[in-house]
Design goal:
By secondary structure, this protein is of the alpha+beta class. The protein has helices at about 25-30, 45-55, 120-125, and strands at about 35-40, 60-65, 80, 100, 110, 130. It binds iron/sulfur cluster (2 copies). One iron/sulfur cluster binds near residues 119 and 120.
Length: about 150
């Protein structure tokens, strides 16, 4: 999350030259932190579990959320879409994903297929199973309901 800038942990300098890639978890352990965990930020259950355990722990915990940058090397998966099961609860919009909007006619969620990278995070938070990933090639242009 550096705005595409090189940093000591992604193997690039600010001038985009190749550089030695430091081991972030190793650096944290080297300064004495024993509870260091690497978590996939796209796995909502794993994120929640790790945060709960870290907050409950009496020791210092460091959580490293590691996943390819969506702007640089994320492979786009088939975009997700919102089905008619949407209850307009609004939970998915709290994720802050720019691909998720609201249908002004009924408050149902809308997903812009042009912006969705298919990470699946919103589907993990929808308690109604309303966010689905259509079979590749069958998603509607520009997103919206199925
Ligand atoms: S898609 Fe799911 S989480 Fe989003 S508003 Fe509809 S019911 Fe709620
Ligand atoms: S699948 Fe990922 S990118 Fe697509 S709308 Fe959901 S959270 Fe956003």
């Amino acid at each position: 999350m550096t705005g595409r800038q090189g940093n000591p942990f992604n193997g690039e300098t600010l001038q985009k030259r190749p550089s030695r890639e430091l081991d972030l978890e190793g650096v944290v352990r080297a300064i004495g932190v024993e509870d260091v965990r690497t978590i996939d930020p796209n796995d909502a259950k794993a994120v929640r579990r790790a945060l709960k355990e870290a907050v409950a722990s009496d020791e210092l915990s460091v959580l490293v959320f590691r996943s390819p940058c969506v702007l640089i090397d994320r492979i786009r998966e088939t975009p997700y879409a919102v089905s008619e099961s949407c209850t307009a609860c609004g939970v998915c919009s709290t994720l802050g994903c720019p691909a998720i909007a609201k249908d002004l006619a009924n408050d149902h969620a809308l997903i812009d297929a042009a912006q969705c990278i298919g990470c699946g995070q919103c589907a993990q938070y929808c308690a109604y199973g309303a966010i689905v990933q259509p079979a590749s090639g069958s998603s509607s242009e520009g997103g919206s309901h199925e």
